[in-house]
Amino acid sequence: ELYAALYQKIGDVMESLWRTFLERYADEFVICRFGDDLGFKTSTLTSPKNIRTHIIPQYKRVIDLIKGSGKPFLWHSCGKIFSVMEDAIALGINAKHSNEDTIAPYEEWITRYGDRIGLLGGIDVDLLCQKDPEDVFQIVLERGQKYRGMANGYALGSGNSIPDYVPVEGYLAMIEAVKKIRELELTSLQKPRMTRINTNFPQK
User: Fold this and answer.
1) H or E element at residue 95
2) How far does the chain reach from its first CA to its final CA, in angstroms?
3) Other C-beta atoms within 10 Å of 158: how many?
4) Residue extents of the structural domains in the chain
5) Coil, strand or helix: which one is 33?
6) Of 82, 111, 133, 141, which residue has the fewest beta carbons closer than 10 angstroms?
7) In which band, very low, low, confident or very high, does the pLDDT at 77 lie, cut at 50, 70 and 90?
8) pTM, whole model, 2 decimals?
């Protein structure tokens, strides 16, 4: 009983905070989000059963408030959480952020969920750290176009928050690639006959 009551109390606090926030500031924001890492590289941090029994119901209280105010909801959660993604989608999340290539290629997230929710990220932070800026630019350019072609809703960015050890040059190379993708898309739209950006890239 104490264990269940702890989660209930956390949910009480979350609901109270969000209710106050929405009452005061709903008109100032277009979209709402919160982050709660449920996993790590190989599994969820606690059992899927525990998440469904104790965590998902508390999420629902907050998400119902947000959706009731007419706002879309974005959810950030790190880790290998495929076992509880259907539960999260059932809550009405509009989009999900966070990915690491060591957990699964981003294509898997798109294949599983890209027809039902938006997906944010796609570019592993390790790539920004380990590759030369020129390689970062080319990889982001190719993957970004590919992911946008696969998913119904996709926002390109890093798979996790940018820490201070990410080289500035790598980060800026990602930004420049995003600008290039946008430029190519706008050029395509301006043509008399609309064409899709080629997403069939040769394997390196």
Assistant:
1) strand 95-97
2) 56
3) 23
4) 2-98
5) strand
6) 111
7) very high
8) 0.86
